[in-house]
TrEMBL record:
<feature type="modified residue" description="N6-(pyridoxal phosphate)lysine">
    <location>
        <position position="61"/>
    </location>
</feature>
<keyword id="KW-0456">Lyase</keyword>
<feature type="active site" description="Proton donor">
    <location>
        <position position="348"/>
    </location>
</feature>
<feature type="binding site">
    <location>
        <position position="349"/>
    </location>
    <ligand>
        <name>substrate</name>
    </ligand>
</feature>
<dbReference type="InterPro" id="IPR000183">
    <property type="entry name" value="Orn/DAP/Arg_de-COase"/>
</dbReference>
<feature type="domain" description="Orn/DAP/Arg decarboxylase 2 N-terminal">
    <location>
        <begin position="43"/>
        <end position="283"/>
    </location>
</feature>
<feature type="binding site">
    <location>
        <position position="320"/>
    </location>
    <ligand>
        <name>substrate</name>
    </ligand>
</feature>
<keyword id="KW-0457">Lysine biosynthesis</keyword>
<feature type="domain" description="Orn/DAP/Arg decarboxylase 2 C-terminal">
    <location>
        <begin position="34"/>
        <end position="374"/>
    </location>
</feature>
<comment type="subunit">
    <text>Homodimer.</text>
</comment>
<comment type="function">
    <text>Specifically catalyzes the decarboxylation of meso-diaminopimelate (meso-DAP) to L-lysine.</text>
</comment>
<dbReference type="GO" id="GO:0008836">
    <property type="term" value="F:diaminopimelate decarboxylase activity"/>
</dbReference>
<feature type="binding site">
    <location>
        <position position="240"/>
    </location>
    <ligand>
        <name>pyridoxal 5'-phosphate</name>
    </ligand>
</feature>
<dbReference type="InterPro" id="IPR029066">
    <property type="entry name" value="PLP-binding_barrel"/>
</dbReference>
<comment type="pathway">
    <text>Amino-acid biosynthesis; L-lysine biosynthesis via DAP pathway; L-lysine from DL-2,6-diaminopimelate: step 1/1.</text>
</comment>
<dbReference type="GO" id="GO:0030170">
    <property type="term" value="F:pyridoxal phosphate binding"/>
</dbReference>
<dbReference type="GO" id="GO:0009089">
    <property type="term" value="P:lysine biosynthetic process via diaminopimelate"/>
</dbReference>
Amino acid sequence: ARPFIDYRDGQLMVEGVSAAELARAHGTPLFVYSQAVMLDALAAYQRGFAGRQALICYAMKANSTLAVLRTFVQAGCGLDIVSGGELERALRAGVEPAKVIFSGVGKTRAEMRLALEAGIGCFNVESLPELDVLSEVAADMGLRAPVSLRVNPDVDAKTHPYISTGLKGNKFGIAHTDALAAYRHAAALPGLKVTGIDCHIGSQITETSPYLDAMDRVLDLVDAIEAGGITLEHIDFGGGLGINYHGETPPAADALWQLLLAKLDARGYGQRKLVIEPGRSLIGNAGICLTEAVFLKPGEQKNFLIVDAAMNDLPRPAMYEAYHAIVPVQPREANGEIQSWDVVGPVCESGDWLGRDRQLAVQAGDLLAVCSAGAYCMSMSSNYNSRGRAAEVLVDGDQARLVRARESVEDQLRLESI
Ligand code: LLP
């Protein structure tokens, strides 16, 4: 099958729609998502879980645009939320509340109350004080909050330190060695109902071994917890599977789960309900960001290509020195002069770069596509330099829908007064 985002007749196409035409119609910077790529990525997980009791809770922090959520919800997904704002978006996207899980280290009482009122499926609790407060809030409402404890399996996900979460030295989860005591504590609290166990070891994981190690560690805990008389209805194995940004070769979701399910089967947990929380691997490679070359600024040491997208739209290079491929929307003829460019935005920071030393044949006014921009771009965007957030388009076949309008200056000023 041909890829859904690719060139046809010298034009970058998103499914059946020309990227250049979208840029003309909606302006730049413009995020464009392919629904087919999203559903394809989801299908790999669904194949992996065929015949099992499994719930795929899309980690909406990766991209929380309503139309993106709706696409996954309609395809059967639940959602992993981390704030009251995400809860509201999730509900507006039409998710069944029972398919919502609430992660995060700092849930407030107000957020807990909202989630209890909505009737979400599970709270993934990350500390003892959170257990106590959640129990209190739920008991006050005459409820028992369904909880799963996020345990820290202490395995190295071998990813960027900022997005590695499963090692001892970070703020997430309950240490492996404290987990048993925490479960006993939780089981004794009046406002809680212990339903599961949960872990998440990091993001952009491209190797299989950290997952296999984490599964062993988590199942050791399940053995111990259940030996102590607490039954776990579900095992939540988090998210984290990486994507190909620049030649990385992460395992396919179905291949990874074949190995993990073999482990679960071997240890007698094959029929247990499974939950996962993938974000990036469902949406990352479904999106591109279209941007226009504003000025060429060749120099003695470096050539700068200044484009109209910036770190406020695409913060990952500035934050993690992340690599996003940058390609022309309408490649120039073979005789176009290829030069090395640092692709930078107009924001007043040296950290405002999108790509370094990129070989491109480009002129001012050309359109470029920043690739793999579906995850952690729009959802991490900001108004820095009073730049409005970009618009977003969702493509399905030869249909393109504007699903978020470009943010105007008026939109930005609406909440302020002098
Ligand atoms: N579950 C929990 C509890 C998480 O903290 C995360 C991501 C996920 C699931 C989804 O992980 P994924 O499948 O997307 O890897 N902004 C960074 C990534 C931060 C990830 C935070 N947690 C980036 O742009 O690379």
